[in-house]
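pinned: reference chain
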Amino acid sequence: MEPNTDKLRGLRITSLDDEEEDDEPELPHEPLPAEAAEDYEDYDDDEEEEPEIMIGLLEEPKRPGLLLRHLFPSKAGGIPAWLDPVNLPSGNSSCCGFCGEPLQFVLQIYAPIGDAAAFHRTLFVFMCPSMACLHRDQHEQWTRKQGNPCRSVKIFRCQLPRSNAFYSSEPPKHNNSDKPLCAGAALCHWCGTWKGDKICGSCKKSRYCSEKHQAIHWRSGHKNDCLQMISSSEASSSVLPAVGKVPARTSWPEYQITIDHEAASDSDSCDESKSKSLVMQKHGKPDDLMQSWMDQFEADADNQCWAYFQERISRAPQQVLRYCRESNAKPLWALSAGRPSAADIPSCAYCKGPLCYEFQIMPQLLYFFGVKNEPDSLDWATIVVYTCQGSCDQNISYKEEFAWVQLYPTTITRP
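pinned: its structure tokens
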């Protein structure tokens, strides 16, 4: 029996409590209170204390301008608030490795780790909106060789020291006086996401990241606007998108990501390994019949994993993200099938050090983005992000990290 994937989409999405909150950006890795951590049940067989999980929730921005880059936001949808606004990913880095189209912005998490070189640190997630490309990505991740750049989901890590060319060394005041120290690179006039290194041959003003976006913009009305811009003596760079404004109608809706603590469960955890251990405690050494039952537990691993997954997300059904960078943190997998082994996780492409689990994206994000439940619509069980354990600084503004895609049983393929 396969897990009912419609159950997750059917989870009731409730509005967040209307609480007075400080506008100061919260760190995704803010520790849980000690008393909350004590309520957790041990997840591992060796009774290791469960790490403290933070969850990401979406809400409308409290005021305009709250999600601009100099306020170091965590956000989903819209356009990215690039941390380094000048040295953006470009070329093949900004495109799907399968169809070659520009990637669409999903979300970003402001996640400094206390290191001097990473006083500011943001992780960016982009993906191709094509389910066909995501399916190919999921299939090839089992055989992907180290350094293979062919991805439809890409993660970029950017970090800056406290003293840098882009922002004040003082924290934002959030009183409308905060400003970046310099302008960013000119962005694509259509998507507002990637560097506009191509210029309209007629007006010489509008910029584009790709020929596709230039063609779409031309058909959508720039053909007429271009003539007006040429004839207007006031034509200037002001025709480009305003900072923070989403020019493209294809962008996903924009939300602020707020960080909260995962609530402890009031009931016994349905740990996927607990059912089997309880059988052993009750009956001691298994006979042939007991061994048969235990084999059935193994055969039914997906359903056990799915039950545990549902129990955990039921504590906050509206969560779109789970974050924990502790050394013993583990992803919350929706299914037993489609999980990587340690050998499937590559080393850092830059320093060759180990990668560690940092956060994962939950399928509820698709609900907030208005993605329809249709055969060819974008869908996933979870997307797990692994980053350089040492958060290395290799004089590259945007370093690509590693994502593992887990799809539902009807689309999981493994060589």
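why pinned: Confidence is low (pLDDT under 50) at residues 1-46, 233-246, 272-284. The longest strand covers residues 120-127.
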